[in-house]
Design a protein that fits this description.
The chain is built from 7 helices and 9 strands, in the order βαβαβαββαβββαβαα. The protein is of the alpha/beta class. It has 2 domains: 185 residues, Spore Coat Polysaccharide Biosynthesis Protein SpsA, Chain A (Alpha-Beta Complex); 37 residues. Strands 1, 2, 3, 4, 5, 6, 7, 8 and 9 form a 9-stranded mixed beta sheet that branches. The N and C termini lie far apart (45 Å).
């Protein structure tokens, strides 16, 4: 696809990820368009940096220094990205499978797609009321215009769900979200948000939507928990 007017930046955050970093890098470089690839490493002590250095001439930026966690790393990458680019952010082990078509990007502020969670589960991101209660967008298949938020967007007080907080703030702005069924990524199982932290999620809901939505989300989480118990 021709992307003369579309710039895409992919940010990879990694710390001691020697087992998975190469697959993540290769998944980005295998795309058929030019991508600014930024890697933010938290000063890894294994072979991660050695592996990254193999791709030195294909990277837009590479930083290795101590950070305050994955969202601090994403913030650093965001600040380095070109101001007119769409940004996608990946954790180590995640993989970009297919980008959206150009026509979707031209007419959107944010483009979202699907994420493979495991061999039996594909997460279909959604936009709507449900996003006010919990995260319905997975960052592995989410492209956001940097111009919507020129400075680093992730609130580091939310060490597990800063992307959820950012998604809610974007949604509140009445921006143009566009879904592309062909936009597909893979999320490595596990990670910092693998086990649901109800309290942090509720704190984000209250911050962005107030007390009424806090109580509504709390009820929603209880109902979901009961449903999961009966489904076992």
């Amino acid at each position: 696809m021709e992307t003369q007017n579309i710039k895409i930046t992919v940010i990879i955050a990694v710390f001691n990820g020697e087992q998975h970093i190469e697959n993540t890098i290769k998944s980005v470089l295998s795309q058929k368009i030019e991508i600014d690839l930024i890697i933010i490493d938290g000063e890894s002590q294994d072979k991660t940096i050695e592996i990254i250095n193999k791709y030195e001439n294909k990277l837009y930026k590479f930083i290795s220094e101590k950070d305050e966690g994955i969202y601090d790393a994403f913030n650093k990458g965001w600040d380095l990205a070109k101001s007119d680019s769409f940004i996608l952010y990946l954790g180590v082990g995640d993989q970009l499978i297919k980008l959206p078509s150009e026509d979707k990007l031209i007419n959107a502020d944010i483009v979202y797609g699907k994420v493979i969670l495991n061999e039996n589960t594909v997460f279909n991101s959604k936009i709507g009321f449900r996003l006010r209660l919990g995260n319905t967008l997975h960052h592995q298949a989410l492209l956001v215009k940097k111009s919507l938020h020129p400075i680093s967007p992730f609130d580091k007080q939310f060490n597990l769900y800063a992307d959820f907080d950012f998604n809610q703030r974007l949604y509140k702005q009445n921006l143009k979200f566009v879904y592309d069924d062909s936009f597909l990524s893979y999320a490595l199982p596990g990670g910092v948000s693998a086990n649901f932290d109800k309290n942090q999620s509720l704190k984000i809901v209250q911050k962005n939507y107030g007390k009424n939505y806090y109580y509504l989300a709390k009820l929603f989480y209880q109902i979901q928990r009961i449903k999961s118990l009966f489904s076992k």
